[in-house]
Every structure is written in C-alpha cells, then in structure tokens.
Model the fold of this input.
Amino acid sequence: MVAQIDKTMFQKRLWKIPGRLMAYIFIEGRALTTKGQWINPVVFAGYKLAQIIRPPVKSKAPIFIIGTGRSGTTVLGKLFALHRETVFLNEPKAIWHYAHGAEDIIGSYTTGPSTIRLAKAKDPQTLASKISNIYGWSLFWGGARRIVDKYPELVFRTDFVNDVFPDAKFIAILRDGVDTCSSVTNWSKRKGVVESGETHDWWGREDRKWHMIVDQIVPEHDDLAPFADKLRQTKDHRDRAAVEWIVSMREAQAAYANNPDKVLCIKFEALCEKPESILREMLEHCGLSDDTVFAEYSKQILDAPESYETLELMPEILEPFKKVLTEMAWENSVSRVVTRKVDI
Done:
C-alpha cells in the first residue's frame, strides 16, 4: 500500500489521492530504514523552491500527532488523510531537518550533532515561515485547509513547537506499554538493516536515537538515572523500547498538564473500542467539522489492537515500567511484565 492509499480512498475520496501522492513523493522525505532515499535531494530542492515560490494557500493551526511509534499513530494519520479538511503528512522529518538542522534524532539526513529537546528558537517566525511554506504547498495539492503532521518524537518538543506555531494543536495517542514495546521490538528486528557496516533500525544510525535518550532524557527521571550506564550498554530492544515508552508517556502527561487546551491525550485501545466518541472529541479539539466518510472509514480500519502475552525486562526498569502502567490505568497489564531471567 503506497502512501497509505487504500481501496476506500479510491472509492470514497478519489480527489484526495493526487495530494496524498504529491506529499508522499515531494514532501515527506525518505527516512533511514526506508527505500527510495535517492529522492531526498529532490525533496530538499523542493523545500528551497517553496521559499521562493510561495504557496497560494496559507497554513494555519497545524495539528501534530505525537506519542510513541507503534501506538496507532499511522492508523490515526490514515483517518486524517481521508478527512475532507486535512492533509496528512507521514513523519515529514525532512521538513524539520531543513528548517532547524540540529533535530534529526534518527540520523536520516545528517550525521551531525542533534538533540531530542530543542531550545527556544531564536527567530520562531522565520522558522514557522520556512515550514509553513512547505505545508502550504501540501494543502494546495491536497485541496484542504489544515495540515496533520505525524511526528511522534515531538512529544519531547511541545514547548518548542508551541513557540513556533502558537495556534498548533496536539493529539497524543498512547498505547499499553506491553503491546507498544513488543511491537517496537518486532519492528526493529524486521526492519533493521546493515548499510556500509552501519546498523540502521528503530534506534537510528548506529544507535544514535538510543544514546540520545539515555544521555539527554534519562537523567531527568530519578528512577531511571541511576541505571544510565547499564542502559547505555543494553542491546535488548525490549529494554530500550520500555525506557522510551516510560519517558514518552510521562512527557505526554506533562504536555497535557501544561497545556490542556492544546494537547489531547487519547488511548489507542479506546479509539478502537469506541471510535465515534473519541473521533468526535478529536475533531472538536482540532476545530474540524464532522465528516461522514471519515467516521465510516474509522469503522473499517479500527480493529482491536494486537495484544502480546508478556514482556521480559531487565530488573532495573521493571518497577518504573509497572508504575507508569498503573498511573495511566493500564494496571491490568502489570502482570504481563516480568523480569528477564538471563540479562543479555
């Protein structure tokens, strides 16, 4: 399925397909673990052209899907791709690299230094203009008025994004940690590749993302910081995913506490179980109109999320993980988390 285009889009919203294809080819860029990276120079050239030839449509109040990967972010994006008022961009991290230059966590577009958190922009209006000019062309091609940018790691950058886009809205989609971490583990094993002697997987170019999490985010958490040295050495995808999930869930909670009018937290399980009420809440939060096609599509693609039996973790992170599960009302999954018998 190219560009998240499926049979329903052909049948119900054929006019959305050209814009979605244009975004997929010329806007989103190709990340480290994807095919077709040869097109990235064309994508970046297009970004520069967008600063010269301004789009006929202005981008206002962008919507950001944040949280963690493997938590339903793509499914939620597919829904927005069909909504008549929105254009969906699937992790257009190339745009953010073009605009900022020191934010590439994965290492898809640079091997230079980057940070997970971003300091307050020196010139937020210029940064907003760069990104908005690219968003504007996506809106023009897609025949819509609002951008939906799926970039899960922006959960660590909501203050920065708010400074650049004061009218932004955020949807943090959250999923049970056992299932999220199991899904991340399977993805990284399945999608990981070795290129020119380098490992490229969920944790970036040669563990770039993982080292940033341990060095920049873990010290902020009293129950994880004492184990930073051991965490830095672990190669187990389960331990890494668990730490990423813990800090991401806490970050989403903090973002909501600081800006409840701008951040909406939803659970993937609830979205699948009762999509009508959750989607209605999302549309109201984002200032979008009801859309019958959008609502009907949700019933087709939102199945019960895959559930995994157990998650085995190193003992040092077991209690912090269980604590977050309990705090966020996933206490029924606490029994599914066990200590790994042999730590590797």
Remarks:
- The radius of gyration is 20 Å.
- The first strand starts at residue 63 and ends at 67.
- The longest helix spans residues 237-258.
